[in-house]
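Subject: Sanity check before I submit

Could someone independently write out the structure tokens for this chain? I want to compare against mine line by line before I put it in a report. The sequence has 158 residues.
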Amino acid sequence: TEAIVTAGANAWSDITLETYAQAVGLLTPKAFQGTGPVWFMSAQHYWTRAVPLILASGGVTAGEIEGQRRQMLLGFPVEFTQVLPSATAADQIAAVIGNLRAGVAFGDRRQLTIKSSPDFALDRDVTAMLGTRRFDVQVHGAGQGDDPEVIAAVKTAA
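---
Independent answer below. Compare away.
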């Protein structure tokens, strides 16, 4: 099963605080270990959808309105990523919450290799250097198959 909560309709305006809370509810205890989960979304999504919901919920202090607060949603920090959508649309992942340390593996596919050539620009006494390295990222905790759900998403309806 996928760890995705779909909003009631096909726009960001249909995402509610309850929708975000349902995504948090899909996370297993493993997601709360260590640094815990973090929200990932575009700055546009945070400022045009999440912040109005937060402000509408009441209890906002003058310090928060003046900007003396860290970007948070439901008690979890928000990190901006422009890889996620910056405008509303149907059938799109709008926000992701998860503990990437628990749900993503980073591996070396090949160590750093360096080559040099003293023949490049010989008349200027220049040596060319080329360094390459291969790596891979594997998401294994997105709630697919039997993997524990340490990453969940909020999506608009199709």
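---
OP: Matches mine. For the report I'm noting this point. The mean pLDDT is 83.
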